[in-house]
Structures are given as C-alpha cells and as structure tokens.
Amino acid sequence: MDTNTVLTQAKLRFAHESAKAYLKDKFQSKLLVAEQGGLWKASPQMISILTTFQKQTVAVFIDEFDNPVKVEVQALKDKLLDTYNSVMEEYHTEWKELENQR
Amino acid sequence: MKKRGVVMFAHNNSKRNYYRMALAAAKRVKHFLNLPVTLITGPVTLYKAPELDVFDEIIIDDPDYSNKRDGAEWINKNRFNVWRLTPYYETLLLDVDYVVNSDKLLKLFDIFDDYMFHDSTSFIMDPNAPQEYLSTKSFQSLWATVLIFKKNKNSRHLFQCMEMIQDNFNHYADIHGFIGGMYRNDYSLTLASRIVNGHILPSKNIIPWNLLHVGKNTKISHYKNNEDDIIDKNTNTKFMVEYDNWQRRKIKKEYIFIKDTDFHMLNKDNFDGLFVV
User: CB-based contact (8 Å) between A62 and chain B?
Assistant: First the structure.
C-alpha cells in the first residue's frame, strides 16, 4: 500500500506545528558554516554586521563558540550570503512541499 | 593510524540483535558519509553473524553483562574503551540506533576540537518536549549517541573519567540524585565532561544542533509514492512519521513527512522493521 492510501484510510491529521518545528530545526543547522578558523551562522544579522564592516579588509568577530576570530570581511560575507540564499531556498521549497501534502 | 572513521558498539542480548542494527547503520554510514566503519563487539555476537565484510574492521572486546534493562542484560558498559581500541585518529562514535540520512555529520570534522557531543534534543512530533535532566537538582543530560573525538590527551582524560564514573556509578547517583543501578553512558558523559573541564561545560564541546529523537510512541515508515515503488532501505531518505497525540483522553493520529534528516530511534522494534528485516 502506498503512503497516500494509508493516509486516506487512517484519517491521519497533518501535524502542522510539528512539521514547522522540524523544518526550522533542520535548516537552522544547515546555516552553520566553518570558515576562516571560526564557526558562523549565516543569519541576516551576521551578514548585516559584515556589510557594515565592508570598508575594512579584516576585522575580529565573536563566532558561535564565543571565540574572537580575525577574518577577511568580504570573503566571509560572500560565503555566508551564498549559504544563506541556498539554504533558505531549500527551506522554502520543502515548506511548500509540506504545505501541499496537508 | 587511519585518519578518520566511524566506530559502533554492538553486543547482542537475549532480546535484541544489535549486530543486525549495526549492520544496517553501517550501510547507511558508508552510503551517506563515505567513511570506514569499525565494529567493536564480542565473540558471542559474532557467532554466525552475516555480512561481516560490511565492516572495515571488527575489534573484539569482551562484553560486561552486569547491566540490566527491561528484564534483559544491557551491554552498554566499557564504552570508554573506544579511546584505546579505535583505529582512527578522528573517531565518530555512533549508537547503532542513530539513523544517518544525510552528510550532516561530516561537518563535525571541520568544527570539533578535542571532542564534541549533543547537549540538547528535540522530539520529532513533540516540539515542546522538555530536556532530560539527571535529576531535579543536577545537570541537563548530555548525549553519548553521537560523540566525535580526536585521539589525544584531552579525550583520554574524558574517557578515563567516564571509566571512573562507571566504576562508582551508584556513588554519583547518590550525589546527583538520580536512580543508580542501571548504568547509562549519557549520564557518565554528562558528569565526566564537567569534571575534566574544571566543572564547567565549554561551548566548543557541544554539537551546535539538536539531537533529533524519534520517541517510543512515534512510528516511522518508508515513504512510497506508489504501491509498486521498491524502497532501498539502506539509502531511502524520505519517511512518514506517525504519532498518537493524546489530548483530553482521546488519541489524535498525526503525521508529517521528513527527508534527508538524521534521527535517533528510541523505538528499537520500529528500527528493526524499517532497516533490518
């Protein structure tokens, strides 16, 4: 028996909140990037901070392990921006898939 | 010494074939992580064991039968021997009921220092489930389900300390107010990691994402698009998760789908049904 038939027959309810929490958990971890000797989260906040430091070649930031790490600002910003965009695209696609399966 | 690989412990008991679970887990590790897998086991477990060639190495370590759970011997002691026995400089120690379903664990090799483990969990169908504590007056439990370490002096101290706690488990149970008797590696790790770090828990030792549990009241099945679909149980990444949600004395049957996500299955019968049989 395929999964959709099981669903129809068993009167199961899609657990919206659980699905939402699961996806958030899954993609939060994908936003983590090990780069230039530190661990970074590709969050809009971190990307914004890096953007404000763009006039500097290097700067020191506190990473996810609470260590100060000296980084090349532009290279880190590019890496985090790439990661953010690709992970969030994937997140959005999976979210849409789940929504359609309700 | 080889650079990196995965190590698993498996000792069968009268109720469960842990070797077969390790076999299923090892196939997934090889598919998704492309790492060599070493099994640490005992001679009784190896007797007539199939597909030994799935493991790159098999190391014999005599089991300790002194621990009991659910009316059967639970051979989980002496996990600290992994430091001495591992053939790898960087070892990823996995429980056999941890289902690798992505390459996520490879990221650990880029970010860990001496050793790393989970300090927090989430339950797949119960997002608000509380964290586990050793007791109301003790620490939040760490998890030995996924433990990565370099073979160095600092990790040796950690495992030596776990050995000391195992040897004096009831004493630590008295101090921390949890029920002794049944030894748990999670609790031993929780206490040892603090002792060897001056009674603090450094953030660099914590895996920066949650360990995803699939609870005992949750059922997982392979997702099938069509009835005739043939699922490869060693590589399938999409699953349906069902859960009996008790609300006001009534069960509401709920489901979600998951894919490309690693998880830790607490329901061993479900694990067997999915990956072993």
Answer: no
Confidence (pLDDT) at A6? 64
Beta bridge partners of B258: B239
* Interface with A, mutate which of B213, B231, B256, B264 (most A CBs under 10 A): B256
Question: Between chains, do B257 and A5 touch, taking CB under 8 Å as contact?
Answer: no
Expressed in angstroms, the distance from the first to the final Cα of chain A is 19
- The 8-class DSSP code of residue A54 comes to T
- Token couple for A97: 């898939």
Q: What's the gap in Å between the CA of B102 and the closest CA on chain A?
A: 11
Q: Residues A35, A79: contact at Cβ < 8 Å? A: yes
Span(s) in chain B for CATH 3.90.550.10: 2-211
- Lowest mean pLDDT across B79-88, B154-163, B265-274: B265-274
Q: Which CATH class is domain B2-211?
A: alpha beta
Can you tell me the distance from the alpha carbon of B207 to that of B204, in angstroms, rounded to the nearest whole number? 8
C-alpha span between B274 and B235 (Å, rounded): 12
CB B75 within 8 A of CB B140: no
Please give the Cα distance from B187 to A84 (Å, whole number). 36
d(CA B214, CA B129): 12
Query: Do B207 and B118 touch, CB atoms closer than 8 A?
Result: yes
CB contact A14 to B (< 8 Å): yes
Task: Tell me if the pTM is above 0.80.
Answer: yes
Of B208, B227, B242, the CB nearest to A64: B208
- Tens digit of pLDDT for each residue in B87-135? 999 999 999 999 999 999 999 999 999 999 999 999 999 988 999 999 9
